[in-house]
Amino acid sequence: MIVYNKQLLENEILIDEADSLYKGGFISKEQKKFIEKELPALKGQSNILVRIGLFLLGCLLYGSICGAISLFGLSAENVFFQICCYIFTIVGFVGAELLANQEYHNHGLDDAFILNAILCLGAAVAITTEGHEIVIAFFVAVGALFMFLRYLHVLSMLVFCISATAFLFFGMFKFGDIGKAILPFAAMIFAGLFYFLTKKRMTHLSKSYYYNGLLLANSFCLVLFYLSCNYLIVRELSAELLGTEVQPGTDIPFAFFFYAFTFIVPIVYLVQALKTKDRIMLWLSFLAIAFSIYTIRFYHSVLPIEIALTLGGVVLFAIAYFSIRKLKEKESGLTFKPDRINHSDSLLNAEALVVASTFGMKPEVKTASPMEFGGGGFSGGGSDGSF
């Protein structure tokens, strides 16, 4: 299914690991260059700005090809309009295949052809079905999944997750008000099942080619699971889809469950992230906690905004201060020590300056030894019999 040479993919993984070791200070720059020279890899682009530029250039090239084809189909008028997006989709698939055969991967040009092919596929199905949402979502999901499996395109996995979620939503809409009413629970169950499925696949991967895509899908499930039953999301969607208005003194059905879900899930994320040392889940838990606080303030303003922000800043500072004091001397597990694999010198210098100024840490002073060595003809101190 994968179009790329497996050996080149494995070499790319080894080069990435060598780059991580170099950033961590475990190997020298010469050793890193030697590894890159000895291991041929795919033509990729690690600089995100250059990759965006190449993506825009690829979109221009793709548009030029489609525009040239359109010049030949103008005479057909309505007939060409019905099939043009299918032709443009074929152009995208063919372009992606040619670039893959030229060993381009995560380069920018291949991103343009892959994403535009998926976009044209959705537009083609929309024209054919006259905007039937559930059919559009299904075919976009299938096309995005194919692009991920064949070209290992991580962004295609994100498109698959979004379109699969849209397929679920539009499918629930087909059941009328009942489907709309149980939509939060259906989305929650879908996200939970999809999360454990991707987690299981990640732990049983024999080859790590698909790992990044599965990790993205796994993180997407965490976000969807929390948002599916967040009180603010459920209440606003209920008003939008069902037309229900919450009168003063009343609330939405199962309001207690949604309130509890809004605050318990972020705490569960935080505890699980600390337990498993999952950095992505840790950041998502912080964002979820912040959105939970915003959810309550959206409906219940207990304090003026300036006082709430001040108190929130004091609480966060206290948590950060005592956490750093607790973790700064730990050498393993959850620690405040810098990560040797992911760091920059400027960040480390900033951390050292902040810690030193905050906690009054003084630089280490070297004291002179009371014994003076030397005098020997070899490497030993005092080898001539005197100190």
TrEMBL record:
The UniProt record lists the keyword Magnesium: no
Keyword match Membrane: yes
Keywords, in A-Z order: Membrane, Transmembrane, Transmembrane helix
Record's protein name: DUF2157 domain-containing protein
Segments passing through the bilayer: 48-73, 79-100, 112-128, 134-152, 157-175, 181-197, 209-234, 254-271, 280-299, 305-324
Superkingdom classification of source: Bacteria
